[in-house]
Amino acid sequence: MHTRSDPALRDAYDLAVQDRAAFLAEELIALADEPIPEGRDPASWSAWVQNKHVRFDTRKWIASTVCRQVYGDRVDL
After folding, report:
1. 3-class SS at 34?
2. Assigned domain for 76 exists
3. Structural domain includes residue 40
4. Whole-number Å distance between alpha carbons of 67 and 25
5. What is the pTM of this model?
6. Which residues of 14-26 are buried (b: 16+ CB within 10 A; e: fewer)?
7. Which residues span the domain enclosing 50?
8. How far is residue 54's CA from residue 47's CA, in Å, rounded to a whole number?
9. Confidence of residue 1 (pLDDT cuts 50, 70, 90)
10. Number of domains composing the chain
11. CB count, 10 Å around CB of 63?
12. CA 4, CA 19: separation in Å to the nearest integer?
């Protein structure tokens, strides 16, 4: 049975998608609040920043894609 033909299954799926997006948003807050590590040399500090940037952007993109109405970009006309 497909989710399109079963309203209860579709509702459960939609709720799971919203929960996933909310979890990713919470991870974004945790990433943003993560302190800068001490005692790194410039090369490893740069690699740490780039890694954090990729992790942040990936979660932000997924959250805004799967739950556009809450986390997507808004254009008000």
Report:
1. coil
2. no
3. yes
4. 11
5. 0.67
6. eeeeeeebeebbe
7. 3-71
8. 11
9. low
10. 1
11. 22
12. 20
